[in-house]
Write a structure and sequence with these properties.
about 130 residues; alpha+beta; Flavocytochrome B2, Chain A, domain 1; 2 domains; 5-stranded mixed β-sheet; 5 helices; elongated; binds protoporphyrin IX containing FE
Amino acid sequence: MASKVVTLDELRQHTTKENIWVLVNGKVYDVTKFIDEHPGGDEVILSEAGKDATEAFEDVGHSDEARALLPTMLVGEFEKGPNLKAKAYQSTAAAAAMENAVQQTSNVFYFVPLAALVAYFAWRFYS
Ligand code: HEM
């Protein structure tokens, strides 16, 4: 079973508490049975469902005991192709573009009253 290659589509189909897979360090794990026993609670794992949980997993500094549990839940290797980080970067780029657009819009909202104020004082000064 360990030789199974899990695709990105397959990974993304396992995102509910009843059927949850996570990707950690290039391997996919079925944490469905473990989630209720997880000392860190179910919410934290659920928020990583169907995703690359490597960063979240490593940031916590899981013990060797925690790491030793992983092989018992192994589904298989994650397929080599899709780069989840690249996809995350794309959405970050989209978010940045959106933020930029919002920023430009708020610049307009800031500029219009300012221009009106300047015009008013200019009018007061010259009339
Ligand atoms: C994927 C399989 C996972 C396994 C087998 C696992 C296992 C464990 C174990 C055994 C502990 C107890 C402390 C230790 O021995 O390090 C623990 C704690 C913890 N885990 Fe996980 N974990 C997993 C995934 C995650 C993920 C994805 C997160 C996301 C942030 C997470 C967050 C935490 C937190 C915050 C604690 C600390 C709880 C506390 O000390 O109060 N874990 N985990």
